[in-house]
Write a structure and sequence with these properties.
The complex is a heterodimer of chains A (257) and B (251).
Chain A (H helix, E strand, L loop, with lengths): L1 H32 L7 H14 L2 H32 L1 H14 L8 H8 L3 H26 L2 H9 L4 H36 L7 H10 L3 H29 L1 H4 L4
Helix pairs in contact in A: 2-10, 3-4, 3-6, 3-8, 3-9, 3-10, 5-6, 6-8, 7-8, 8-10, 9-10
Chain B lengths: L1 E12 L2 E13 L4 E5 L6 H9 L6 E6 L2 E2 L7 E4 L11 H11 L4 H14 L15 H14 L4 E5 L7 H18 L2 E6 L2 H7 L2 E5 L7 E6 L12 H14 L6
Parallel strand pairs in B: 3-8, 3-9, 6-7, 7-8
Antiparallel strand pairs in B: 1-2, 1-4, 4-5, 9-10
Helix pairs in contact in B: 2-3, 2-4, 3-4, 6-7
């Protein structure tokens, strides 16, 4: 228990150290470049504190968080089961895999005009776009993870009397979970990048809009306030997935004797 | 009685068909400890998969206590080569898995599982994951899981092959004790001659090559007698098995 506490403390110190280092780097860049487009960290932080109250920066953060979290959950709800099925059921995979292979590498972002047409200018289109992109990443990772599961592990459960549904429950899901969470963590970066893009037009809410709006008004300190919020959003989501991984995949973190 | 009658099994490799079993028959008496020994790839593991109902013969039939095997049976326990443990479950949950899969209520399985964990000397490590256990402990977890199902047929695929010599001997004794105590019908696959003669009341020596055929059959009624491993009879039997494996006709 104490060991875990100490580990957590060390991790926290690590994060703090990294944040300080980045701030110092930023400060140095701001001083040496001397361009109005790059404000100092103090100016940006001051703007952040001010805008949280005045300009509803908190509201923009909340809208963005809601969009990205809901999209990720939707991607999981559709991608995880489908990935498990495609990994295990060869018949279904033979039919669906070519479909996925052809559509996966197409940049989904190019469909934004169509998506806007069908889902309107509101939350729907943004959530659909992010879901579409993250869904494929989770689907492909899950399918590949299931394929790595040794046949003996499945035989072992079947010999204990496990039926098909139990193979999914007791073998395929827990076996693929570490890979799924890793892909989820990587997807967070993509999801937020897509979020920024999707929010940068045809909306008046969300951090993407806030940043673009500040830019067009030539208010760099406000723009950086938005960037800080977006970074916070990313880091927080990253940490949540990390925590989930530690809790759900404890067996992966325990060293052999 | 367990009866494998006129079984065929083949798989396709490239353009040709490889026959693993061609008109293969075998009978196993209740309470027998049958050991299958032979070179790698002689089809001994495949026979276990057939008996476990995980593979189906393309011809012929397999009957266990008069009943044809159509799929995994409730009363057959199968310990796979790498123990078949689930790395994401701790010892306790690995041992209880068979019962949980069968929807036995927790109230009922809890006691069985605890007793078995104690009996196998795993109490101290019951919250450990398989990666934290030694090879011998892992094997005992697999054994505990199999025995909680109160099987009437125990199948084991090279259960002790990855263990060091001393652990291996200790577990061989444990297996022998369990077999004697419960009169459990057992089929064990091994490539160790010593193990075969120590654990098998009957030993089938399988020949290299396809389809699988039996090179010889040895009855070994003295197993379980104290000091058997050191006796001249034990030595004679191991030499005989070795000569069969090497393809020599024994004197």
């Amino acid at each position: 228990m104490t060991q875990r506490g100490r580990g957590f403390q060390r991790q926290l110190l690590g994060y703090l150290g990294a944040a300080l280092f980045l701030l110092a780097l930023w400060q140095y860049a701001a001083w040496s470049l001397k361009t109005p487009m790059l404000p100092t960290p103090q100016a940006a932080l001051r703007a952040t504190a001010r805008l949280l109250f005045e300009a509803k920066l908190g509201r923009h953060l909340w809208v963005s968080t809601y969009r990205v979290v809901l999209s990720t959950l939707l991607s999981l709800v559709f991608g995880l089961p489908l990935g498990l099925i495609m990994g295990y059921e060869r018949q279904i995979d033979r039919f669906l895999a070519p479909l996925v292979y052809i559509t996966y590498p197409i940049p989904k972002i190019v469909f934004l005009p169509l998506i806007l047409l069908f889902f309107g200018l509101g939350d729907g289109s943004k959530i659909f776009l992010i879901t579409l992109i993250v869904f494929f990443q989770i689907l492909v990772t899950t399918r590949d993870a299931v394929r790595k599961v040794p046949a003996e592990t499945i035989s072992s459960l079947r010999s204990l009397g496990g039926n098909r549904a139990q193979v999914y429950q007791y073998v395929l899901l827990p076996a693929s979970l570490p890979d799924v969470l890793t892909s989820l963590r990587l997807s967070m970066g993509t999801a937020i990048a897509v979020l920024f893009f999707a929010e940068s037009f045809a909306t008046t809410e969300g951090l993407g809009y806030f940043i673009m709006d500040a830019w067009s008004r030539a208010a760099p300190d406000e723009m950086f306030a938005g960037i800080i919020m977006m970074a916070l959003l990313g880091v927080s989501l990253f940490i949540v997935v990390d925590l989930l991984e530690t809790i759900l995949c404890r067996w992966q973190h325990i060293k052999g004797n | 009685m367990i009866e494998v009658s006129h079984c065929n099994l083949a798989y396709v490799q490239g353009a040709s068909q490889v026959k693993v079993y061609d008109d293969f028959s075998l009978k196993i008496e209740p309470g027998e400890s049958l050991v299958l020994i032979g070179p790698s790839g002689c089809g001994k593991s495949t026979l276990l998969y057939l008996l476990a109902g995980l593979l189906h013969p393309t011809g012929g039939e397999i009957k266990i206590w008069e009943e044809q095997v159509m799929g995994p049976r409730q009363k057959t326990a199968f310990i796979l080569q790498e123990y078949g443990l689930f790395p994401w479950l701790n010892v306790e949950r690995n041992v209880s898995l068979g019962l949980r899969v069968r929807h036995v209520s927790k109230r009922i399985y809890q006691r069985t599982v605890e007793e078995m964990i104690r009996k196998m000397g795993l109490w101290e490590v019951k919250h450990h994951f398989p990666s934290q256990l030694s090879g011998g402990q892992r094997q005992r977890v697999a054994l505990a899981r199999a025995l909680t199902l109160q099987p009437d047929l125990l199948l084991m695929d090279e259960p002790l092959s990855a263990l060091d010599a001393l652990t291996r001997e200790r577990l061989q004794k444990l297996l022998l004790e369990i077999w004697q105590e419960q009169k459990l019908t057992t089929v064990l696959v091994t490539h160790s001659i010593e193990e075969a003669v120590f654990l098998g009341s009957r030993i089938l020596v399988l020949a290299d090559g396809r389809p699988t055929h039996v090179m010889g059959e040895i009855l070994n009624p003295l197993i379980g007698q104290s000091g058997y491993r050191q006796s001249s009879e034990f030595f004679r039997k191991t030499s005989y098995v070795r000569s069969l494996l090497e393809g020599r006709k024994a004197e």
